[in-house]
Amino acid sequence: MKLTIQDISKQYKDKWAISHFSAELNNGVYGLLGPNGAGKTTLMRMLADILQPTAGNILLDGEDIRTMGDGYRDLLGYLPQHCGFYKQFTAHRFLMYIASLKGQEKKYALAKVDEMLHLVGLADHANRKIKSFSGGMRRRLGIAQALLNDPKVLILDEPTAGLDPKERIRFRNILSELSGDRIVLLSTHIVSDIEYVAKEVLLMNEGQLLKQDRLVTLLEQLKGMVWKAMIDESQLSSLKRHYKVGNILRQPSGIEVRILSKEQPLPSARTETPGLEDLYLYYFNEELAE
């Protein structure tokens, strides 16, 4: 299966939220990285056929998703950044309601809802009202509804927001198991969500695609540009003015800093292996969320 994003743009009044964005996605997990305001959510809403591009086309196996209509939506699973719930519903009733909207027969839906509740760890809370759920539990319920129709194209906008580390690991494992025969696009600010599961990373800023490649290939360009050094408090302000400084860790013997620089920033600095945080800092000049 192949999803082709063909030179799409999206205009809101006098602002271009997406500008000439092109990419090609095959089966596997793709991580979408970019700062706030980069256009990630707008892009995902177009891929979910909620927004129409001002220009350009989105094709699934060569067919425009607009002409596919319900045929495309039957293959689609979508988790928006802010997922709405009927808070008086129980988790089971909510998923049954979503299953009915997706046109699933009751017998099949009952089995699928139970399967999804177990998958996201909510089986023991199936008959609790959603209004009593924590933020993390609601996020897991949102993930369950996106997977109900066994989608071949899965669009996930900040799916792990509100999940604790154990839940994020569970979610990453679910994605890895699912990704063999479907396209998964995952937008997140959590480094490990992408670092361990993404086949490729798409770097996006100001509505445009900056790079699309395997993470190891993207990190190769930073080889020899990531440094670690111990400094005194008096050196920190000057260092931050002249270099991109990532991690700052106060130790008993001084301050340990991680620096991005093409040249050795300090005589005591030693090169480090680049990571995704360094890549993010390099392209967007801001740190990723932990």
From TrEMBL:
InterPro entries: AAA+_ATPase (IPR003593), ABC_transporter-like_ATP-bd (IPR003439), ABC_transporter-like_CS (IPR017871), P-loop_NTPase (IPR027417). Keywords: ATP-binding, Nucleotide-binding, Transport. SUPFAM superfamilies: P-loop containing nucleoside triphosphate hydrolases. Pfam families: ABC_tran (PF00005). Residues 3-231 form the ABC transporter domain. Belongs to the ABC transporter superfamily. This is ABC transporter ATP-binding protein.
